[in-house]
Every structure is written in C-alpha cells, then in structure tokens.
Amino acid sequence: MRAVRSCLVGLVAGVLALPSLAAPVRGDEGMWVFNNLPRKQLKERYGFEPTEAWIEHVMKSSVRFNSGGSGSFVSSNGLVLTNHHVGADTLHKVSTAEHDYYKEGFLAKTPADEPKAPDLELNVLQSIEDVTARVTAAVKPEMNPGEAFLARRAVIATIEKESLDKTGLRSDVVTLYQGGQYHLYRYKKYTDIRLVWAPEFDIAFFGGDPDNFEYPRYDLDACLFRAYENDQPAKIEHFLQWNPQGAAADELVFVSGHPGKTDRLNTMDALKFQRDVRAPYVLGMLRRMEIMLQQYSQDGEEQARIAKEDLFGVQNSRKAYLGQLGGLQDPAIMARKSAAEKSLRDKVNADPRMKQAYGGAWDKIAAAKKVHRENLVRAALLEQGRGFGGNLFPMARTLVRLAAENAKPNTARLPEYSDAGRSSLELQLYSTAPIYPDLELTKLTDSLGFLAEQLGAEDPLVEKVLAGKGPAARAAELLAGTKLQDVEERKKLAAGGQGAIDASTDTLIQLAKLVDPAARAVREVMEKQVTEVERQAYAQISKALFEIEGPSRYPDATFTLRLSFGTVKGYEENGQMVAPITNMGGAFEHANKHGNKAPWELPKSWHDKRSQIGAETAFNFVSTCDIIGGNSGSPVINRKGELVGLIFDGNIQSLVGDFIYDETQNRAVSVSSAAISEALRKIYNAGALADQLGK
Amino acid sequence: MRAVRSCLVGLVAGVLALPSLAAPVRGDEGMWVFNNLPRKQLKERYGFEPTEAWIEHVMKSSVRFNSGGSGSFVSSNGLVLTNHHVGADTLHKVSTAEHDYYKEGFLAKTPADEPKAPDLELNVLQSIEDVTARVTAAVKPEMNPGEAFLARRAVIATIEKESLDKTGLRSDVVTLYQGGQYHLYRYKKYTDIRLVWAPEFDIAFFGGDPDNFEYPRYDLDACLFRAYENDQPAKIEHFLQWNPQGAAADELVFVSGHPGKTDRLNTMDALKFQRDVRAPYVLGMLRRMEIMLQQYSQDGEEQARIAKEDLFGVQNSRKAYLGQLGGLQDPAIMARKSAAEKSLRDKVNADPRMKQAYGGAWDKIAAAKKVHRENLVRAALLEQGRGFGGNLFPMARTLVRLAAENAKPNTARLPEYSDAGRSSLELQLYSTAPIYPDLELTKLTDSLGFLAEQLGAEDPLVEKVLAGKGPAARAAELLAGTKLQDVEERKKLAAGGQGAIDASTDTLIQLAKLVDPAARAVREVMEKQVTEVERQAYAQISKALFEIEGPSRYPDATFTLRLSFGTVKGYEENGQMVAPITNMGGAFEHANKHGNKAPWELPKSWHDKRSQIGAETAFNFVSTCDIIGGNSGSPVINRKGELVGLIFDGNIQSLVGDFIYDETQNRAVSVSSAAISEALRKIYNAGALADQLGK
Questions:
Q1: Which of A291, A449, A473 sits opposite B287 (nearest CB)?
Q2: What is the pLDDT of residues B144-166, one digit of tens each?
Q3: Letter string b/e over residues A97-130, b meaning 16 or more CB atoms within 10 A of that residue's CB
Q4: B170 within a domain of the structure (yes/no)
Q5: B462 located within any domain
C-alpha cells in the first residue's frame, strides 16, 4: 500500500475534497484518536485496558512522515523505522546515476556515512487540545458560507500562530468528524533526517505490481532513518522496545499510525459522486501518467532509474483506486451503505427537533456535489496543477503566492502560507533534491497537452498558456527560460518579495502569474460552495450520530495519529484459508514459482546468504487492524508496547476500506520484526545496527 | 505503423465517423484511386507515364487483408507478402502455449506444413465502376436526411447484390469524396490462406514500442502467406517480379495498398471535434486497455503470450493517436488548415451560384459535430461495443442481429447483414480461432466497469446489464452462462433464426438482446443526424472543390486500393540529416547501443548467422510516399513494376498525415526486398522459398 505521498496527495486525498463520518462501528473497526480510545471495546473483546503511560509512550514513539506515511522511533539514538516505500522519496533523492540506493539498498557504516534527506520532515505528536468551542464561536449564525469559511480560516490561523509562538511546536488545527470537532495537534518536528539502512528494491517490493495488495507476501518493505538535532543523533525518550520474535497468530496487536483519508460515512450522494465522477477521472489521470512514465523509462537505464519511484507511486495509486471503484460499483456494498443512511435519516426525521436541526444536511451535500462536479476538472488542472506537471511549476506558483500572501495579515492568508506553516513550506521550497530536465520536459509536455484536451484548445486561458505553440514546443520554451532549478534563484525570488516577482522574466514565474487568477477563482468556488457547505452539513450529521449512537465513535482518517487494534488472523479467499504468517524460506519458493524472473527476482544478497537465513523465521503477517493509505510504515505493537511488526500493505479486500470495513476479509499486511532482525544480522552484515534496536 | 485491424477499427477509423476532402495537392502528396491516377504529376515530376498494362498488373497484384492491412502476390503459386504485424492476428491465432509462432517465427518445410488461418480473407481488386448517377438518383430532393439515408442504403444494397449475383465477386459500393462519388469495387476473394514463413517477433518488431514510428530502423517486419483454391496453391496470373537489390536512394517508387482512413479536408469544426473530443476520448480508452493488458500479461508467461498481439496493437494505436493529437494541438498546423478553408469558402461565397449551392455546407457539418459530440460516448459503449469487451459479446450481437435482419428485405438491412456481405460475415462468425477464458473475463470485467463509469452506475440500462452485481461478479456470471466459445453452438443459433434466439438461455445472447434496442437507437441518431448530414455537406464541398480546383484530386482514404508515389530520400531532423537507407550490419550496432536488452535483443538466429549476413545489405528505407495506417504490408514498386520494398511504418512526422501531408519530413518506412532475400537465404534456411519469389 502506498503512503499518502506529497506528489500524489492531490490525487489520493483530494486537496479540496472532504471526508465524512462512519457507520456503526463493528468488531475491530476503527482508526481511533488518542484522546478518545475505544476502551470499552478493548476491554470487552480483548480484556485489555491501556494505562495512561502506555498511551503516552505509544503516542510519542509514533512518527509522522510529513511527505506522507508513518514510522516509529526504535532506539534512544534516533533510529526511525518505516517502509522502504515510505523512504523511497528520500532514497530516490539521495541517489545518482552512479549510486542507486533506491534500487541497490544502502547501509551506513558509521553515522558519518549517513546521507541527509534534502527535504524530509518528521512530526511527533506531543499533545491534543480541543478547540472546538473557540473555532465554532468565530462563525456567526448570520454568516453566509463564504463569510463562514473566511471566519473559520482566520480563527484557525490565529490559534495555530499563538500555539507556535507559545510552545515552539508545529501546531495544526485538525478538522475532525468533518466539522463536528476541531482539535489542536502539537508536534515536535525533526528536519535533519539521515538515511541509515535500506534493503534492495527487489526484496522491499518483491512481487512488484502484480503482488501489490495481494497475500501471501514476502516483502522486506523496511528501512531505517535517524533523526538528528544540532548535527548529532537525536536523544529520544519515547521509543518502542524491539521484539525480535514478531507477532504470533491470534495475538492482539495495535497499529499506531497516520491513516490519510477515509470516507466511511460519506452520504450516498457523495459516494455516488466518487463512483461516477471523481474516481474515474483520477484513474484516467493515473493511467495517463503511468503510460507517460513507462515511455520515458524506455529511453534508457538512467531514465528508468529517474522515473522508477514516480512510476511505482502511480501504479500503486492506480491499483488502489481500481479496488476502491470496484467496491463502489458493487450494488451489495452500496446497499449496505444506503440502508445505514436511511436508518439514520429515519431516526432524525422521526424527532421534530432533530429534523429541524439536522434534517437538511443530506440535501446540502447533494447540492455541494453538483458544484464539485462542475468544478472538478478546472480545480484539478489549475489549482491542483495537473495541467502543469513536473517539480518546477509548483515552485513557481509557491513563489508567486508567497509574495502575494505575505502582503496580507496572517489570518487572511491561504492556510499553507500562514506563519505557523512557514518553516515546513520553506523546507520543501528550498529542497536540494535533484531535478531532472528531461523528465520535467516529458511531464510538462504531457500535462500541457492534457490541459488543452480538458479545457479545449480554444479556451482563452489555454491559448495564453500555450502562447501560439503546441504543447511540446511550449514546454521546451518554458523550461529553457527558467532558472528555478537553482535553489539560490528560488531563495532570491522569495527574498525579493512582490517586487522581484513583478520584475521577473523567468518563464515559469510568468506562467504561474498568468494562471493564478483562474486557479484562485476555482479554489474559491470550491472552498465556499463545496468545502464549507459540506463541513456545516457533516457537522449536523455528526451531531445527530453522537446523539443517536453515543460518543464512542472514531472520526474519518485525516492524516493524524490514530490507534487501530485487531488480531493476527488469516482469512478465507475463493474457498481457501489463507494462513496469517509467511516465513523467509517461502520467499525462495515464491521466486521459484515465478521462474525467478522480475518482479520475483530475489537480490543477490539473499541468494548468497540463503544457507544462513532461518527459513522458518516469520516474514510477513496479516491482522484485522483497520488501516488505509498513510498507515504505511506504522509500527505494529503488542500489549506490552513492543514493536512486533511494520505495516506495509492491505490486502485486495481492504481496498474498499475507504468507505467500509469488513472484518471477515479486510486485512492489514505487515513485515514481522523477526524478519527485520534476521535480515539485518544474517543478510546485510548489520549486526551492530540490529543491536541498537529497542536500546 | 499499425494496419487498420478489425479489433481496433472502431477506434482507429471510427465506425461511424466520416472522412473528408483534402487541401490543394502538393509534391508527392496523394493516395490516388486507380481510375484517376495523377498522370500529369507523374509525367511532370518524374517523366513517368504508366501504361494501362502496368496499371492493371499492379492493381491485380495488390492484396487487401480484410482483417486490416495490405499485401501483394509475389509468386505464381500464391505467395502473399505482407508485414509480420499484419499477419500477427493470424500468427497469434495459429499459435498455442506449446508453439508460439508469433514470437518464435515459423517456416513451412512443405506446403503440407502450412497451417491454415482460421478467419483470414484476402481481396484482390478486379474492376471499378462508377455508380454515382444511380446512387444519387435514388435520393430525392424532398427527402429529409433520415429518408435519404435509408434510400441510399437500399440502392447500395441492391447494386451490390446484383453485382454479386452477376459476377460472383465480392462487390462493395464505396463512398468517395465523402459522397461526391460512389464507385462499385469488385474483388476476387481468397479465404483459404495458409502461413508459410514468419521471422521472430524480436526482429520483426526490433526496437519495440520505443522505436515504433522512429527512424532509422532495422526491422524485418515481413511474413509470407499462401493463397489456396480448392485445397491447392492458387495459380496467380498477376504477381510482382522480385527485385533482390531493393530500392536505391533517389529512386522513384510507388506504393500500391489500402490506406485506412484520412481526414485531409475535414472542416475546421470537424478537426476541432477530433482534437478536443474524439482523440482524447479514444486515447483514454487505449491507455485503459494498455494498462489492463499489461496487468493481465503479468499473471504469467502464457498470459503474456495470449495478450501480446492485442497489447502491441493498442500501444501502436496509442502512439499513433498521440502523434495525431500533437499535430492537432499545434496552432501552426491548424492555421494552415484554417487558411485553406477560408480561401475555399471565400471563393464559394464570391460566386452567388456556388454560394447558394455549397455555401451552407460548413455550418451543417458544425451542427452534425454537435450531435456527434452528444452521442460519442453512447455510440462507443453500446454500438461499437466498448462496454462489452472480449471476443464473445460481438458474436452474441451478430447472432441476435442476424436473426432480426434476415427477416427484412435485403435493401432494408443494416449493411453488414446484406446478402452481398454474408459470406465475409460468416467467415468471422464461425472462426475457429482460440478464445481464452481468462482474457475474456479480464476484458469483460474491465469494460463493464467502464460502461458503469461512463453512463453512471444508476443509468437504467447499466443497472439491467449489471443485474445487481458488481462488474467483476457480473462478468464471471455472464461467461459462466454462455456456450458461444463453441463454433457449433454459434452455427446452431444462426441456423435456428429468431426462434432460437428468442428461446436461448445463453447469458450473452440475452445480454445482446437487452442492449440491442439502445445500441440501434444511438446508431440511428448517428446515421441520420451525423453521417447523412455530413455526407451531403461534404458532397457539396467536394463539388465546389472540383469546380474551383479541377478534377485532379484524390479522395480521402477509405481502405480501398490506392497508388502513392515518391522518392527514396532522407530528411532533416533536429538539425541532422537522416540517411534514407539502413543496412543489416546496422541492426547489430543498434542492438549494442541499447545493451542488447529487450526490445533491442536480436534473435538467436541472427547472432548464429551473423558472419554469413552481408552487413552492407540494405535493410530499411524511407520514401516520400504518402501513406497511412492500413498501408502496412503494401508493396513498394519501381518503374518496372518490380517489388523493391515492403511498407511497414511511417516516421513520427508522418503521424499528422491523417489531416496534412508535408513532404519535407513525412516519410514512409519500408523493409528492403534485399533484406528479405538475404534473411530467407542466409538466416532462415529458406533458399527454396526465396527461389519462388517473383517466379
């Protein structure tokens, strides 16, 4: 399973789309917030009662990869465990034509050999504060949706800035229950992150795209980073103890991580919009990107290396979306969702007070979805930037907007330009990650063609963007006339403010200025007529649910820290029982079964050390824990709070998890901690590193 | 370049789309009909005056592959030369998991070893008769477009039937100049076609998708079939002499083949429709198919074999469409087209009589394109069958329609069910080509999902089609309940007529019945409000052109026999001259340059015989001849009427050839006859076969 990656966040999570509330909770369902854990369920189902110390320890040991993904501290000297595919973005950025760490793996012999990630930010949750009252009070009943949107944005910016100034911690006001609650999340932030160890791509992603979202699996989808402070390995108080045996069958386990986005209680209109409009549209874009990246990769080995990580991400998203869409197109699943909605609406309508207060919410969402539908394409192309592919245009836009937003008071800015988020934004904007000119050209050419296709070649904005040229010629011209690949140039433009932007002859800066009014316009329509309307409506539905079904509910995923729980347990598929745990010897058998050909080719290191590897060592396992994209890299923890595994995937049956959880077949897939220990010691000559785990 | 292949004909040529007229002819431009050859241009540019005997000989030596593609007779004992990729459909159909002739190549040691193609029909043009007056007379001025459409269809069916009864020849009334003229083409038909020789896929398509539409090239894209009559090799009077030296630089050459479809003089509104609506839509479908087939291929080696030919076809179309769209999105090209249109319209409007007679044509086409736009998706899904993928549904539909159409008089039937076309239809319907259940399931699942996406899952027809299931479950159910994979079952249903269809419990027959009313309805809208309106309007434009610019014009391509002419000549690309002729030694260098890795891996046979191959032997060459998809397999002929080459591709600059020809860079790519001779004798131990060529 793919983490929620920054480059795809607009696709996967929908920059402007909103999640919603969930149906009655069943079994091991739920991605629980740490200040409202399912104590009753845990006690009744598992006889487990977490202490406050257990909760705090797990919370502060959990790490969010701001690039999209999860991880955990696993040593006192700053080691962070995550997936190879969560680290992939960094592995790729620190690689070159000569040293392809993403493909070949990496091991730092000493701390001095650990390469620094150019733009990786890790967040560790320190506290949660309920600020619902203050946020809600800022929105007056007489305000129209546009005014309400701006008032809420302003109070959130103020709360975040105050918290940052007071604590020095990253401070994010998070919208939960789609507007039912607002919580202030404070994170300790690490921005000096260095690579310690990664295995080869071929074992991290053994089985490749065909095996992705399948089970049984044999993947060492793991890597280790180290957090630094003041140029020294960070001293970490809360880190997970390492259990070298891994999880056992039927054991209770927990997942502490950052699920990206779910839509469990989206209304039927919202689900149908996703089914009939948005998911097909996104899939079309993903297929287009996939073919484009494949074509680019065919140009040579270095091109294949350059595009590999992008291509993997796109293929992963394509498979995930296809599974999700398959679920939405299944009338049986939709009937369950529809029945739950009807039941809730009937109860609301049966009570005159509730009917008056909440009864109109569903129709408001239906109306918002119509506006969403009309603006989906323009929003994707102009505001999410799908019409201007590559890494350079987003930088140009950021510089153009930075100058404009800086001139406004903090409370009136687009949220990503607020004072509280400034240092995170600058980490990305001044990233020293390599930019590959010919991939930029390929992406910009393709996306300008996409823009012309989607809006029509005679759309006035398209004509201005293309400036009398075809997409290929115009893309070449734009890239020949920019210097934004140079970090110093970006810093100079940022420092120069509006004057520097106005005076700039950089072609991409000029393009970003040209596009900005239209992009802002569609964003404003989406914010005021979709986001805000839905937020208010879902807040009503949320209140109705709390009144009718009680407070033990989890909010839909929002890329904030959640705790899931479940059992290590197999499942039935096509009439066969799938065993819950695979072992390392099985990897060799699985490779043989596929003729040892890519993507089932085990790396040389594994063949070389085959005789020394314990064939019975647990490799991957499944559990009933409720996860979704973004949970990749989450630690799997036992009752004692020890790390027994590492989430890296969901099975194919879990792909409908965006909107429904079904314990019979939905499974989370993990690497066993046993396999990580074994591989470090026996295959990668990294005993010294293994010795640090849990210490 | 891809031939116009049956499975993609709806995509590539647009079952319901109409081509149109061309701008002023320049240089070597033109795909000329054999009864209106460019004698003046040939004499003035090349001092060449073809005799009647030369023309008849070339015409009767030229072969149309009814599956989509061209070829030629090259021996008195029935040998037919075409491209490996034109023969691919048959190569694939006669292959099995044990013998993959498509991949590994094939050589029949004796005629007894030549495997028979299960459904291949070859056509050889015998005569052309102008029937414009009779067709036009059937359409009365007082008829509305719907009545006109039916009247024209009826008279065409009558003419074809009369001709078939009188001559026994396949008789097709062809619409030329988009309605300006109607000609009756009579073909001798061969339906017992057997495979004689094919090289390995790796040399036929050396360089694969990356090199497709590129130059220089090193491809042996050739194979040989043999036509049989009465179970004996056919005795052929007109076949081409074989020139073992191939074409020389600067030589005048001709291409005699069957270009599928061009749109050279589409009006600007029609071109913009193609640019903004149809081409993007088709590309979306192609990308979807490409990913689906790639995914299927990953399931194993046998799956890869099964899907390979489909996948190649889809990739080829995707690349061709992308090139075409690139041209349409180039404002400079569109400006040239626009200027030509303006010039013609100005001349028409300057003459009151012409203005009255022809002046309204352009607006009629614009109006038709609006209707086309509104119906494009339903027509693609329901009538062209994109919502019901695989080989079985089309058979079910044919059976359902056959029963219904047989009940009508010949003149009132859908044209593909007319008496004149019946035997060709039955050849396809009763094909013994293998049907692969899991590929059928993959395609049907994907296309039912596509149907639901495109029409919306709550469209009443979609709900009936899916019958309460998701696409995957419904596809499995449909395929479990059909016996149409059995040829005898198809014959039984066809013989049983409407009664058998009514009584059938076959799931796919029932599905075809369910869909048919809606499919026929959208077809009727397209025929009466688009096809007919455009035909009348383009006929007016055509007449205006003849009046203003004289009779020496060629009609747009219609998959009928055409003669192109040109010179073997290099061209300039990115400031470099590209030499016109490559040699066989260059293939080894090209492979080395790409690390001898797929798709640049030469077959073992080539490495084994490397020392015996004349490295200087001409391999591929380019010429200025004006060709398009469907010309694949066409013979390249010198002044003497000898075969000197075999068309197999166009360069990337030729991809705009659908609507514009530019002699500076547009090049047709051929295999030299020298390379075919050399390869047969030195590599494939087929000297005896080579000895038959031209004899």
A1: A291
A2: 999 999 999 999 999 999 999 99
A3: eeebbbbbbbbbeeeeebbebbbbbbbbbbbbee
A4: no
A5: no
Q: Which of B113, B121, B111 is nearest to B90 (CA)?
A: B121
The burial class, CB within 10 Å (0-12 / 13-18 / 19+), for A529 is buried
The SS3 call for residue B105 is: coil
d(Cα A96, Cα A433) in Å, to the nearest integer? 11
**Amino acid (one-letter) located at A52:** E
Instruction: Write the residue in B284, B301, B325 that is nearest to A284 by C-beta.
Output: B284
- Tell me the pairing of strands A62-65 and A70-73: antiparallel
d(CA B394, CA A486): 57
CB B622 within 8 A of CB B668: yes
* Chain B CB contacts of A471 below 8 Å: 326, 329
CB contact under 8 A, A276 and B473: no
Q: How far is CA B394 from CA B61, B379, B410, B428, in A?
A: 33, 15, 22, 10
Residue A80 — φ and ψ, nearest 5°? Answer: -120, 125
Q: Report CB contact under 8 Å: B329, A470.
A: yes
Out of A276, A284, A329, name the one closest to residue B471 (CB).
A329
Q: What is the pLDDT confidence band of residue A6, given thresholds at 50, 70 and 90?
A: very low
CA distance B681 to B683: 6
ipTM for the predicted complex comes to: 0.91
Kindly state whether residue A527 falls inside one of the protein's structural domains. Answer: yes
Spatial contact of A246 and A674, defined as CB atoms under 8 Å apart: yes
Chain B: closest CA distance from residue A288 (Å): 7
The domain spanning residue B614 has which CATH number?
Answer: 2.40.10.120
- Mutant choice from A297, A305, A329 vs B, greatest count of B C-beta within 10 A: A329
Measured distance between the N- and C-terminal CA atoms of chain A, rounded to whole angstroms: 29
Which spans in A168-212 are helix H? Answer: 201-204, 208-211
User: Rounded CA gap, A646 and A429, in Å?
Assistant: 31
Q: How wide is the angle at C-alpha B306 spanned by C-alphas B303 and B310, nearest 5°?
A: 120
- pTM, 2 dp: 0.93
Residue of chain A minimizing CA distance to B470? A330
Residue B656 lies in a domain: yes
Domain range for B251: 8-121+191-264+556-692
The sign of the torsion formed by the CA atoms of A348, A354, A360, A364 equals: negative
Tell me the pLDDT tens digit for each residue of B437-458: 999 999 999 999 999 999 999 9
Cβ atoms of residues B130 and B183 within 8 Å = yes
Using the beta-carbon criterion (under 8 Å), do B472 and A318 form an inter-chain contact? no
CB B242 within 8 A of CB B694: yes
Of A327, A329, A595, Cβ closest to residue B452: A329
Domain count, chain B: 1
Interface of B with A (CB under 8 A): 208-210, 272, 275-276, 280, 284, 287-288, 290-291, 295, 298-299, 301, 318, 325-333, 449, 452-454, 456-458, 466, 468-473, 595
Report whether B196 contacts B651 (CB < 8 A).
Answer: no
